[in-house]
Amino acid sequence: MEPSNSAAFDGLIKRGELIESVSEMTPDYLRELKHTLIVSGDTELISAPAYYLAARKAPSVNAFMTGIAIIQDELAHAHIAYHILEELGESQEALIFKRDPKAFRYPYAFDVPLESWTELVVANAMYDQAGFCLLGDIHEQCSYGPWKRGLVKVMAEENFHLRNGRNWSKRISQAGGAAKEELQRAVDWMFPLTVEWFGLPDNLKQHSAQLDYRLKGLTNDQLRQQWLATVVPFMESIGIQVPAHQENSHYVLDYPFPCTFDPEAKRWDVKDPCTWDDVLKRWRARGPRNAEMVALFQESFSKFQVQG
Amino acid sequence: MSPQQRIWSALAEINDPEMPINLVDLGVVYGVELEDRTVRVRLTFTAMGCPASDMIIGDIRERLLAEPGVDEVAIDVVWDPPWSSSRMTEEGREALRAWGLSV
User: Which residue, among B57, B59, B55, has the nearest Cα to B76 in the 3D structure?
Assistant: First the structure.
């Protein structure tokens, strides 16, 4: 098929066929695919330093091993995305080691420091659940064959991260007292950050090339609902409050969405609603830990390179 | 089914947290003893640094305590003989192959 023949290409996508190589793609499809892969790779990659900085606070050797194993998984998942990007003509080296920290395209939530074991396991229970929803959708729907197939094991491993998050959240809640209060505080600031992870609400998003090209199958709001439908009942089942409730078949947030967030204090001001333009501005400026985390994996890269 | 067999089939309901294979097919359960109302399980892991060890122990305890006649579960983690892939059952091997792991 001629790549320029975009009507035929669109038909192929609509019929549910899989794309296997660059030669089959239109330039527009290739651009959207790369963008989607960069967001996925960056998200997995940055979760490694974010989780590592918190895993150091593990309460036992066993817990630390679990934390480190999760980080290893995340790096492997990042590698899958960057490896595919390389096959699509991008340079892994440039993407990982030569980009400015602000040019990385991962969710803002990771820029807010995870500073304790409690915050790490809440991230496993909520952030990894978000990753699970997003990647599960790609795994089921994605029109690009190599990525779709590469996600089989990723899903199994993300499930392990989720279990770690849920087991520990339950255990901390059962401990009660100050431990449970710390858990509730972590959920209080991390819950709305994960809700916004899924992006603009559908009514503000005019058009999605990712959906047109079946790079993903579900809309932002559908994915957000899927996340709420797992996280809200779980948190309630372990006695932790979350600012959302079920109405008929969908979930409704109990706070203005969006509203203002103070990343230094890790506090939402629910009395100060804001616009999505404000949120996009906050995302683009990146958060407190962006530069530190990117430096963690970039700083030693050039050290052992042969000097030309 | 004898009480001992019931324990084994309960253990075969527990999946490894990282792979689609149950603990019995994986070959990490070395022995089961039942004395009065206490089950004693001899268990190993596929690696000493197994990141899922706490989860597996928790899963075994929870599942066996749900068995009638069991009040206590004692788990002895052993490393001798060391686990190797030859301890997997043919069913387990099939499950991992189907999942994409060459065993």
Answer: B57
Beta-carbon contacts of A284 under 8 Å, excluding residues fewer than 6 positions away, are A102
Residue A69: Cβ-neighbour burial (10 angstroms; 0-12, 13-18, 19+)? buried
Q: What is the pLDDT of residue A3?
A: 47
State the CATH class of domain B3-97.
alpha beta
Report domain extents, chain B. 3-97
Chain A residues closer than 8 Å to B75 by CB: none
* pTM, full prediction: 0.90
For residue A228, give the nearest of A129, A81, A123 by alpha carbon.
A129
Helix residue ranges, H only, chain B: 3-11, 23-26, 53-65, 90-99
Domains in chain A (CATH in brackets) are 6-296 (1.20.1260.10)
Angle among Cα A74, A78, A80 to the nearest 5 degrees reads 120
Q: What was the pLDDT predicted at A7?
A: 86
Interface confidence, given as ipTM, is: 0.74
| CA atoms within 13 Å, Cβ hemisphere of A102 | 6
Query: Are B55 and A70 within 8 A, CB to CB?
Result: no
* Residue A218: strand, helix, or coil: coil
CB–CB contact A63 B99 (8 Å)? no
